[in-house]
Amino acid sequence: MKHFFYSTMLGLLLAAPAVAQTPAYRPKPADLATDAAISCAQAHQSAALRQPAATVRHVQKMERYDVKYYKLDIALENNARTVGGSVRMQARTKGQALDSLAFELYPTLIIDSIVVNGRRSPGLRRAAGDVTARLAQSVPANSLFNAYIYYRGTAPNGGSAAIGNALDTEYETNYGVNVTWSLSEPFNAYEWWPCKQVLTDKADSTDVWVTTASLNKVGSNGVLERITPRPNGKSRYEWKSRKPIAYYLVSVAVAPYIEYVNYANPVGGPRIPIVNYLYNAAAQADYQTEIDRTPGFIENFSSLVGLYPFATEKYGHAMAPIGGGMEHQTMTTQDGFGFTLTAHELFHQWFGDNVTCASWQDIWLNEGFASYGEYLSLTAFANSAPYTARAWMDNAHANVLQSVSGSVRVTDTTNVGRIFSSRLTYKKGAAVVHMLRYLLHDDVKFFRALRTFQTTYGGSTARTSDLQRIFEAEAGTSLTYFFQQWFVGQGYPMFAVRWNQVGNNLFLRNTETVSMPSVTPFFDMELDYRITYTSGQSQVVRLRQSQLVSSFTVPVTGSVSSIQLDPDQWVLNGTGSILRDNTLVLASKAAAKLASLNVYPNPCRETLRLANLTTRAAQAEVTDATGRVLLRQTVSAAQPQLDTHALASGLYHLRLTSAEGDVSLARFVRE
């Protein structure tokens, strides 16, 4: 959750005040090198953390049905965590009859009754947050049923909460407003309403009805259908959404808000209302200029990755003193409107809300992409942005490089601090997205892949393997090696480059070392080299680091004065050194021609075939990531294949040298 320890940065990196403030109190931007996200993350990790609400066995019970619809009909005020009312759940049983209903609710909340298909449950069992209600009559397999859960109580606070208050209330001192709001990610929705907390089971639609004092407004998901007067000076806000939604994105925000609406007009789409619930007129005066960036952000993202996915409902913001933002579907909860905070939370509507990670292992699909949304916005609105996109990426890389270890994949999904690691999930996740863009070397393909991801998995959930398949279709080759290195693997590469010029030949030798050799011994990648001449002119060449020590001969047209590696910060790396070495001379014949070689199937098993091989005879050499030669074989147009049965599973490099000295390169995976 950037919500507590990512978007609360006071520095330019995330450009969002930790608490919404009047101009007299608004913090000044800090230097980009100051990253408050780390200290915020540490503070969050020191809070009372525990296992996810449901046990494995209880999750298995909940998986016996598929949620279709939730209706929350509850009472809330803007100065208390007291909650009460009912939740209707409509669901469909799966392949077997249902004789009990399993769901989750925090143990201190009281359940008055449970009614399933019109019949009251004769009894229930509660164990921590796990609730199992016996049914008066079983529900047949593959059948719809309706369950009403009537409950009441006070949502937990502080150390008694599972993760941090899922339903919280606070007096916002700068604007003099009491606010109550929800924040349920990753698995604490059950602290304020009974539900099934399984990422892969999105409700198809929701209604959220909240009764509160008539002085208040209530923000929530979807469209506000009506405000119904109730007795005793109360009003009921009735919100409706007919879009699939994950349990943790169901939200409420209650305060005596004022409403400010602006509109986005994306090309090819409808006019989209942006409904902003703000503390008061003073808050609107302070933030309206920043809020008014939102339409442009929506229009830009829609042009890049597809129309805003909830265009038939709305987008909006509800202010709350949460120390950042939370991407509640169609109505983000935010404490301020810094440039990158607003862009980040908005991009979540595509990556996180429309397509939700299917497991917390894959949370980078939410947070890494939302972070990259900051970069895209800084690029698109460079003239009005608080700093450059390049400065943002430089800082993101510097943050990742502060520690040598750590995988983007989350292996401990019970550790909230690790799930929402600023360094790994957000910054390294964004760096991986950036490298995918570089790998394709074609923005048309890159953004088409993102649009395909949205259309394929919109309204549902996805894993990293799903994203990989889409990018492989655009790349036309296997990307297993890339995701093994950057998603599963740990650390990053560092490079020591030696170079020399002899006549019209520039000789380069790049030696790679890695920060976590026991986990990821080698990063196979392409790298840009900027060659600058004494004339002041320069050129950029892209060369593949296919071994720990890779050598290249590059034809040049002038006297070389310097070399720069990865000048545009595409690749996450720690550059060790770049030195001229007057003794470096490479054999010209071996570098006479370098070409890519197409191989298939990739991944392979027993046999690897070489496509379009025309030479009568060539020497094939297979090496592993450390450069060890594991296989040598002669191939030809008549026999264009390699016997790979003796190779262990893993990533390999193929070097094909013709009789004329021409070299072709390929990489492949042995399953």
UniProtKB/TrEMBL annotation:
Pinpoint the Peptidase M1 membrane alanine aminopeptidase domain residues. Answer: 340-486
Q: What class of enzyme is it?
A: hydrolase
Tell me, what's a Pfam family for it? Por_Secre_tail
Keywords, comma-separated and alphabetical: Aminopeptidase, Hydrolase, Metal-binding, Metalloprotease, Protease, Signal, Zinc
Q: Which SUPFAM superfamilies match?
A: Leukotriene A4 hydrolase N-terminal domain, Metalloproteases ('zincins'), catalytic domain
Residues of the signal sequence? 1-20
Annotated Gene Ontology cellular components are: cytoplasm; extracellular space; membrane
Q: Which GO terms describe its molecular function?
A: alanyl aminopeptidase activity; metalloaminopeptidase activity; peptide binding; zinc ion binding
Q: Per its UniProt record, what Gene3D superfamilies does this chain match?
A: Neutral Protease Domain 2, tricorn interacting facor f3 domain
Q: What's the catalysed reaction?
A: Release of an N-terminal amino acid, Xaa-|-Yaa- from a peptide, amide or arylamide. Xaa is preferably Ala, but may be most amino acids including Pro (slow action). When a terminal hydrophobic residue is followed by a prolyl residue, the two may be released as an intact Xaa-Pro dipeptide
Residue ranges of the Secretion system C-terminal sorting domain?
A: 599-663
Cofactor or coenzyme needed: Zn(2+)
UniProt GO BP: peptide catabolic process; proteolysis
EC number, UniProt record: 3.4.11.2
Similarity section: Belongs to the peptidase M1 family.
PANTHER family this protein is in?
PROTEASE M1 ZINC METALLOPROTEASE, PUROMYCIN-SENSITIVE AMINOPEPTIDASE-RELATED
Q: What is this protein called?
A: Aminopeptidase N
* Species name: Hymenobacter daecheongensis DSM 21074
